[in-house]
Design goal:
Blueprint (H helix, E strand, L loop, with lengths): L1 H51 L11 H6 L3 H5 L12 E6 L7 H7 L12 E3 L10 E3 L1 H4 L16 E6 L10 H17 L7 E2 L6
Parallel strand pairs: 1-4, 1-5, 2-4
Antiparallel strand pairs: 2-3
Helix pairs in contact: 1-6
């Protein structure tokens, strides 16, 4: 009798172990998907951190409700002119060199009376002149025009320029700007044939 009870217990343990092994095998595809998603997020995050160099984000609370009130990144990326996947191959990120501003104010500071003449494709505001993390697409982006070479920039006609409102010295990017930059870059990766190694950073962060 004791022997029968012992054999029954052994068989029950074997069956339970088999169920556990089968469950572990069935969960493997989901684990792989999670690891791939994590790798993509880490890559995008690393690009943003490299963009900021050794400068820490500016102090201040991050308001999640304000973040979700901002327009979707997809809306900023869309344009009036037709887009083709091979239109853009590079991204250049640079600081405005100011502690605040928006498209109109930055255009005025550059000596232009027309906001449409601002020589970049996107401006990411910091709450001083525009909403914190607000992405403002310029007329240049709406028409899918290339940036005009000049000053200290002579990039390619397939370079997307993103201006972060900050100077990288006293006025650092806010937490919200960082998150929006990360989302914008990731969105551009998905829309165009841009590789992570073709993202260029501010000169004063090198």
């Amino acid at each position: 009798m004791h022997r029968a009870f012992f054999l029954d217990a052994v068989l029950r343990e074997d069956r339970e172990a088999g169920i556990i092994r089968d469950g572990a095998v069935s969960n493997q595809p989901r684990v792989v998907k999670v690891l791939i998603a994590l790798l993509v997020s880490m890559t995008t995050g690393a690009i943003v951190l490299m963009t900021l160099g050794n400068n820490a984000p500016s102090a201040g609370p991050f308001c999640l409700s304000s973040y979700y009130r901002l327009d979707p990144v997809e809306k900023a990326i869309s344009s009036r002119a037709c887009q083709s996947r091979d239109r853009w191959l590079c991204i250049e990120i640079y600081f405005s060199g100011t502690d605040g501003g928006n498209i109109e104010q930055l255009a005025a500071l550059s000596g232009s009376t027309e906001p449409d003449n601002l020589n970049c494709h996107f401006v990411i505001c910091n709450g001083r002149g525009g909403g914190d993390g607000q992405i403002q697409p310029t007329e240049t982006w709406q028409e899918q025009w290339s940036i005009t070479p000049g000053g200290n920039w002579y990039g390619s006609g397939q370079t997307i320029r993103i201006c972060i409102v900050a100077d990288g010295k006293a006025a650092y990017p806010t937490d919200c700007q960082i998150k929006r930059l990360e989302a914008l870059v990731e969105g551009l990766f998905g829309r165009f044939s841009i590789q992570p190694e073709r993202v260029y950073y501010p000169r004063d962060c090198q």
